[in-house]
Specification:
The complex is a heterodimer of chains A (263) and B (320). Chain A has 263 residues and is of the alpha/beta class. Chain A folds into two domains: 220 residues, HUPs (Rossmann fold); 27 residues, no CATH class. Helices cover 29% and strands 27% of the residues of chain A. Chain A contains seven helices and 13 strands. Chain A has a nine-stranded mixed beta sheet with strand order 9-8-7-10-6-1-4-5-11, sandwiched between helices. The longest helix of chain A is centred in the N-terminal third of the chain and has 15 residues. Chain A is globular and about 65 Å long. Chain B is an alpha/beta fold and 320 residues long. Chain B is built from eight helices and 18 strands. Chain B has a seven-stranded parallel beta sheet, sandwiched between helices. Chain B has a five-stranded parallel beta sheet with strand order 15-14-16-17-18. A three-stranded antiparallel beta sheet of chain B has the order 8-9-10, with no helix packed on it. In chain B, helix 3 crosses helix 4 and helix 5 runs parallel beside helix 8. Chain B is elongated, with a radius of gyration of 21 Å. The chains are: A alpha/beta (263), B alpha/beta (320). Chains A and B meet through helix 3, helix 4, strand 7, strand 8 and strand 9 of A and helix 3, helix 4, strand 7, strand 10 and strand 13 of B.
Chain lengths: 263, 320
């Protein structure tokens, strides 16, 4: 079985966000990029499944320009066998569904039996692409998984069910699994891994290579638009409560009751 | 022509969840056409009309007894078709986060996720939603005939129920065994019976300064219990093993929206602030007067959390 891993490069989580003049995107000139933290769990799980003999090949899939290649090479250095990068000018302005369309086409073309993705990318935070891929591929999905077992044609997974409850679910492959923190401890690339990664295949695909109609992606096909990007509203100034601990605590309780009215 | 707002009302133990009332009341306030409720499965629907639904669409089926993506997506699609709505609102719960993107891809209805505000722009519902873990916000508009939105819990206040009775319309989604694609084989109850962080109204969080799991358990959790709050943790505390990964608040953990957030020994790294900055009231306790968390705190105490937290716990317990 081949495993497909969706990898996205995102601004590092300690990035201070600056918004462009059109309020349509952030300024990225001095932003440091990294592999989306949740995708790290997806890649690690794929590598472990291969080591356990449950998979024959781990292929990463990324929708991006060549600027993402260092992150893709990092995935190869950690142990992925090869990488597919989908890049086409017609993809500009795609919404989540447009991105899911090209990923689903590329994953299907490789005949993967299991798709692993992060539960969300920590830039757009849309949490939508994995489930959309599953629908477009016509396969089962499980979201926000922190434990996964593959046995023959089937899988079991632990997922969030709301209210702090977790469920153990079972289903049949092929499937799309979105990965949460707690699934595993991602590895770092080793020096030999980095050397080997230089020779591993990184294929760049256009829409035409995947048989995806350019009219089904990009800004023209988007069902969702994002505009008027702004900073979160500033918080009203707070105050520091002085005095010894007992005095400060008594004052805090009084303020929480009488002023803020939250207790 | 699609018209009106359909609110997907989730149930728990036979009654609507609080988020159902939050969304129904907000839908009425938007004034963007008639408001109806969608119920998947069985339960007491009498309060939905009181909270603003003029009609309750209900899909009853043994296949909805526990959540499965296949059955729920099909039932949601049937509810939308039966109601003829132009907007579907759902709480951003774990099941809805799983189902809504798949529904979006199936019926080609655009999805705005985790909005924290909604407004009516000439009869069309527009959302405002956080990105980059809450460091920025976008207006989100949907161009398809039907718009889907998930709404972060606690985004809107719940007022008095001022509606009336709502007739129930049974909807047949044609569900069969084949729709239950992924089966629930076991339910794992949380270790402590507190509200999920993303829906909690009060949260007490601890950071690296707690120094050990034992001290986290001895200081943070009892204070949370005294407040009826849910315990949370910073990434540093989770990575150090003081708290579970499901308890992490921040950009790579849970994004929370409580009315009271108490941060104990949390310095306020940008990635933690991203997860809790929309809390209505923030209380910070930290030894370091220069900690960034104080810039966001409604009330701050500069001092030793090991001294202050137990004092606060005692004060709160004496109020009961």
């Amino acid at each position: 079985m081949k495993i497909g891993v969706c990898l996205k490069q995102v601004p590092a989580t300690d990035t201070r966000i600056r918004i462009n003049a059109d309020a349509t995107a952030i300024l990225t000139d001095d932003v440091k990029f990294e592999i989306n933290a949740y995708d790290d769990f997806a890649l690690e799980e794929a590598l472990r499944l291969k080591q356990a003999g449950k998979a024959t090949e781990v292929i990463t899939f990324t929708v991006a320009g060549p600027e993402a290649d260092p992150r893709i090479r990092d995935g190869l250095a950690r142990g992925a066998d090869r990488a597919v990068r989908i890049d086409d000018p017609a993809l500009a302005g795609s919404d989540s569904l447009g991105i899911a369309r090209v990923l689903a086409a590329a994953l299907a073309a490789e005949g993967v039996g299991l798709v692993l993705a992060g539960r969300q990318a920590v830039d757009g935070d849309s949490t939508a692409v994995p489930a959309m891929i599953a629908e477009l591929m016509g396969v089962a999905q499980v979201s926000w998984v922190d434990k996964l077992t593959i046995e023959g044609e089937g899988f079991t997974a632990n997922r969030a069910a709301g209210g702090g409850v977790r469920e153990v679910v079972a289903g049949k492959l092929p499937a799309v699994v979105s990965c949460d923190k707690g699934l595993n401890e991602p590895r770092y690339a080793t020096l030999p891994g980095i050397m080997k990664a230089k020779a591993k295949p990184l294929a760049v695909k256009r829409l035409a290579d995947l048989g995806v109609d350019a009219a089904s992606v990009g800004a023209g096909a988007a069902l969702v638009t994002h505009t008027a990007m702004g900073a979160p509203p500033a918080r009203p100034a707070g105050r520091i409560l002085s005095g010894d601990s007992a005095t400060a605590v008594a004052e805090l309780v009084r303020l929480l009751r009488n002023e803020a009215k939250v207790i | 022509m699609q018209n009106g707002i359909l609110v997907y009302c989730e149930f728990e133990n036979g009654s609507p969840r609080k988020t159902a009332y939050e969304l129904l009341q907000k839908a009425v306030a938007l004034g963007a056409g008639p408001v109806s409720a969608l119920v998947l499965g069985s339960g007491d629907t009498s309060s939905l009309g009181l909270n603003g639904a003029s009609t309750v669409y209900q899909v009853s089926s043994p296949h909805l007894a526990s959540y499965s993506t296949g059955a729920y997506v099909k039932a949601l699609a049937a509810g939308i078709a039966a109601s003829g709505c132009s907007t579907l609102l759902a709480s951003a719960s774990s099941p809805a986060r799983d189902a809504m993107p798949r529904l979006s891809a199936r019926i080609l209805a655009g999805l705005g996720v985790e909005v924290t505000d909604l407004r009516n722009e000439g009869g069309k519902v527009v959302g405002r939603r956080p990105v980059y873990g809450g460091k920025a916000l976008f207006d989100v508009r949907v161009t398809s005939a039907v718009a889907l939105f998930t709404v972060r819990p606690n985004s809107f206040p719940i007022g008095a129920a001022a509606g009336g009775n709502a007739p129930i319309v049974a909807v047949d989604a044609g569900l069969s065994d084949a729709d239950v694609d992924v089966r629930v084989i076991e339910t794992l109850a949380p270790a402590n019976k507190s509200v999920d962080l993303t829906e909690a109204d009060r949260i007490v969080s601890g950071g690296r300064s707690l120094k050990s799991k034992e001290q986290f358990d001895a200081v943070v959790r009892p204070l949370a219990a005294a407040l009826g709050a849910t315990a949370g943790a910073s990434r540093a505390a989770v990575d150090a093993g003081y708290a579970g990964h499901g308890e992490q608040v921040g950009q790579t953990g849970k994004v929370v929206n409580p009315s009271l957030y108490i941060a104990l020994g949390i310095s306020g790294a940008i990635q933690h602030l991203a997860g809790m900055r929309t809390s209505r009231v923030i209380v910070a306790v930290n030894k370091d007067a220069e900690a960034p968390i104080f810039q966001y705190a409604s009330y701050g105490i500069v001092g030793d959390l090991f001294e202050i937290a137990p004092l606060l716990q005692k004060e709160l317990e004496s109020l009961k």
